């Protein structure tokens, strides 16, 4: 299957190419970039040298010639090309925020008008597999909402309050230098940011509601001095106390058939580079601590996008995504 | 004033010596260690080379000849010598857990009998200055309870639930190699530990109660890939919503006269190596996020111990403790 | 092909299993450990959870039932079982130092007698492919000698002096906690170790001689605050000055047919997790700086071991080894 | 003494203010910045909050009212104001490169004309104390040349070749975000840069010549994933072999009276935040490995600048500079 990556110069673009090299049915035929037209992909992504001869091209969506597309562009840019791709019959996973939320919530959260809205499946396959399977367009979830939602999902409907305290690696801020990503501000350091105002909270609330829960949701992200990974500590306040055996059994059962969700004490290292989400849970009665770990660029972005592609196109769900992480 | 450091080979011992080198009235005359008798201090603490000629001695408490002592030994070891020091008229700050809690809480929390109990002031000077001033023996608080309590104190009595989500540097685990401190398990990694069972929770609860609050307290610590520092994110659920202006004013007023508590967005880097606790607060109505940052070895241990010593002995409270941190 | 990993609890054992999961013809049927008999592999290597059901067994070499074995045991332990494996017709790659050096050099360097010596190919395929191909037993090179030798090989015979200044990640010291691997001694730190006495120098000298060079060789390793990777800066003093064009062409030609050696400015990140060795060179006339980067656990150990296995068994040389690194 | 810091918004400016807070005779009265006029210093340097009320001012050199000035501006900017400060009788330490080299070498190395040249002492006090003492203007050395020269100085005249292989923390690149300082390019990574072309080599050669040596000098810097510190491994090839006892004695004697040079195995951690340079040496006959560690922002910049100020103004040489580093 021929694949185009639209906006391929960033970390998620590089990660899509890295992972698709291992996919038995995927052939990346186009990597677009406005600024890098003519530049070999391996010049920007040196880890891919020797494995790809692709060259960035500044191709418009109307000129893309492929069976499938990944949109790895900023929000508001995706909505401008989604329709064109659909008209041309190119199935698409959109990694931007443009189709993740209900229209009114999107416009309020991002402070812009949505000029090309339609409903799309929200691509956490573990929760929405049936909608994703066979879809022509899927909205790929945000990195924080993926880890947070998978941490809390089994218990959401038993809770009155869920506080997501998340810690992310720096790659979540992209590969453009800024004060946020300046080594002197991050190395051997740690801090909270957007303490109560991060946009991803809207996705978290939407998913909690879809799980049949009325729990109040809160979210505070933090910045870790690591490249990759998000560990989310979900502090879940229950309506009625539950014992450890009970909550653990609930999680084991909820994820029993999910290859990409493993029940074990999460660390960033065990999932780094992989599409796994490690989850575990510990109860102290009325509060349960549920912790998840994902690689923000894989299960939190490009890996989950490929998992969605696999479902949309009838491939094995884990095709190209079975690699183990590295430890250490 | 002549000072003995009992148990001087660890990180807190080294930090006491580092800081006391800058104290105008302090002269460290003894550094004890069971295992390192005869070894120069600078062999274990190479950053002190050229600044001290002290040699570790395996001196028993009954043979200590000093005006003041710091107990930097494990819990249960401190209670065995506290009485001896008192009899000899040596004022003491105990950095262990032995005198921080009410006797029954201590015995339940640490699973041991307390064989030499007495009440001691709990040495967070910002909250208990009057009790510390002039005392002969002070219990120095745990690292997590110091940062957590200073984060939540101004709001405690307005809250029904306080969840402390703390992230600590590795030095909190001491300078003896272990799986916990093994670089391959920590470097470029992140994880939660003792999700619901850390002993420091008992101190946090005790302090919240002393602040006149009936809030339920919860605590989950995490391990950062950094050497020093604790950042605590206190998720405070209020009885009645409060606006940002109101909570910020509350904090500004509460700490207005405190040199060591600074109101600014906390990062580990800005307090590293110092006795400062940086605090700030952000409200979203019914939840307030209060964040604090301390250096776990300074305000979380040795620095606060010296601050207590200063109060006990009538020195300026900031004597020896005015150094700025390093950034970056 | 059925494979046994003898000594599978360490980092190189874990890495062999990680990489062999991606090999089309390899089936790991045994993972031995003296201490962990009965423990699931995924308990020690949590990144492999969900991907393997192997359990560690304390199996003696005489009871190994496999077509191929990797010896991932300490030096002196390998020589005790190499003969047994050979008698049983089990082809073997030995990751220890026992068969890398001439007997007298080995005994002098390691200060022990070699009780079961025989000659074995030295498994850097880029330099000794013909000897490795079809061999029944191959000595896998040390991590430092692999990177250093590949950096200097094209220029060795033109040089009178080669100084290898190498910087390694902490995983080279293994997964047993020690002062060397203690986070407090490594994190945000950097130092040299074994300044003139590291045993790997003997391998480097042997390879330089085999390249027809009489250059004097020196070696100083350093410890980086990273998990993986070795970057070697080879300072090469030439008999006659050479221009940049000339040395660069020399390197390009020398490695033109080598899939695993890429000519680009090396960084640890671009090779992390992979079997690639990135190399580049810069001349200032009489001194040339040649720099290489490898992952010490892959091209420096387990990956090169599989590359050797592929040659020994007639598989494609890159089978199981084509994964890209991760960046960031 | 009233002090002005010209160009105070960067890391070296911040470091000057941090260190001068501990100086018994120094009073920083002006901190200039073109871009930050009116901004409190503590907004840019949050570690100084509570310790200084200074506000950045965009003051021209001709309007500076102070007894002493530190020039912490880029090269070519310093030469434009040095004369003005001299005319106004303001003693000055220049942290830029403008007065470190002979005029012709400077112009060739930096590719610019020097429009206001005069000779100034080169401020490594351990080597040029007599010239610095009482001078009105001192050129503060580069960070790499300081550590490298102190590593090799005792042996320089016995050597025919000196190769400086240096590894620096990221703060050497300043506090402006760039690809070089982007966390994703540095974190958990390592690389060489300017392999044969770093400008600091010119200072190193100049100092080696002043030491009476004709040794050829080479220099390759590398970038560490740490904030601070430079470790230089000087590979010194001797004219005649020397034994370990001999070289060690040479170093011990050479630095016997130097408070800021300590003979011990260097690590970055032991000198971090301090003005110390730790040095040690190991011989293998014809090659000697001499290693030094400094904090690039202290002994490599602001600390040495204050040490020079102390000598120029008749203060104790270690005034304000006796703080120990932090370990860990």
TrEMBL record, chains A, B, C, D:
Under the heading SMART domains, the entry gives: Semialdhyde_dh
Q: Where in the cell is it found?
A: Cytoplasm
| One Pfam family in the UniProt entry | Semialdhyde_dhC_1
Q: Where is the active site?
A: 143
Q: Which reaction does it catalyse?
A: N-acetyl-L-glutamate 5-semialdehyde + phosphate + NADP(+) = N-acetyl-L-glutamyl 5-phosphate + NADPH + H(+)
Alphabetized, the UniProt keywords read: Amino-acid biosynthesis, Arginine biosynthesis, Cytoplasm, NADP, Oxidoreductase
What the entry lists under InterPro entries is as follows: AGPR (IPR050085), AGPR_AS (IPR023013), AGPR_dimerisation_dom (IPR058924), AGPR_type-1 (IPR000706), Semialdehyde_DH_NAD-bd (IPR000534)
Where are the annotated coiled coils located? none
Under the heading CDD domains, the entry gives:
AGPR_1_C, AGPR_1_N
Q: Which residues form the Semialdehyde dehydrogenase NAD-binding domain?
A: 2-135
Q: What's the EC number here? A: 1.2.1.38
Pathway annotation from the record:
Amino-acid biosynthesis; L-arginine biosynthesis; N(2)-acetyl-L-ornithine from L-glutamate: step 3/4
Q: What class of enzyme is it?
A: oxidoreductase
Family assignment? Answer: Belongs to the NAGSA dehydrogenase family. Type 1 subfamily.
Per its database record, what is this protein's job? Catalyzes the NADPH-dependent reduction of N-acetyl-5-glutamyl phosphate to yield N-acetyl-L-glutamate 5-semialdehyde.
Q: What is this protein called?
A: N-acetyl-gamma-glutamyl-phosphate reductase
């Amino acid at each position: 299957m021929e694949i185009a990556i639209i906006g391929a110069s960033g970390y998620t673009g590089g990660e899509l190419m890295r992972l698709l090299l291992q996919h038995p049915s995927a052939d990346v035929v186009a990597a677009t970039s406005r600024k890098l037209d003519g530049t070999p992909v391996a010049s920007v992504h040196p880890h891919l040298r020797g494995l790809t001869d692709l060259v960035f091209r500044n191709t418009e969506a109307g000129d893309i010639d492929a069976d499938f597309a990944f949109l790895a562009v900023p929000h508001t840019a995706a909505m401008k090309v989604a329709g064109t791709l659909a008209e041309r019959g190119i199935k698409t996973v959109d990694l931007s925020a443009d189709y993740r939320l209900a229209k009114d919530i999107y416009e309020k959260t991002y402070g812009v008008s949505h000029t090309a809205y339609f409903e799309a499946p929200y691509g956490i396959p573990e929760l929405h597999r049936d909608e994703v399977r066979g879809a022509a367009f899927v909205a790929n979830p945000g990195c924080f909402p993926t880890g947070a939602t998978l941490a809390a999902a089994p218990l959401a409907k038993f809770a009155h309050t869920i506080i997501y305290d998340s810690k992310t690696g720096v790659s979540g801020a992209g590969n453009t230098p800024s004060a946020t990503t300046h080594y002197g501000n991050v190395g051997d350091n740690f801090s909270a940011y957007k303490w109560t105002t991060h946009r991803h909270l809207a996705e978290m609330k939407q998913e909690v509601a879809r799980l049949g829960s009325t729990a109040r949701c809160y979210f505070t992200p933090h910045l870790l001095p690591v490249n990759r990974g998000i560990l989310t500590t979900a502090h879940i306040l229950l309506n009625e106390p539950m014992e450890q055996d009970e909550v653990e059994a609930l999680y084991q059962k909820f994820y029993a058939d999910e290859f990409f969700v493993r029940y074990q004490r999460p660390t960033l290292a065990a999932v780094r580079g992989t599409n796994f989400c490690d989850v575990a849970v510990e109860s102290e009665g009325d509060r349960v601590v549920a912790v998840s770990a994902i690689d923000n660029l894989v299960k939190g972005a490009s890996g989950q996008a490929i998992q969605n592609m696999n479902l949309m196109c009838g491939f094995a769900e884990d095709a190209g995504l079975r690699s183990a992480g590295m430890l250490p």
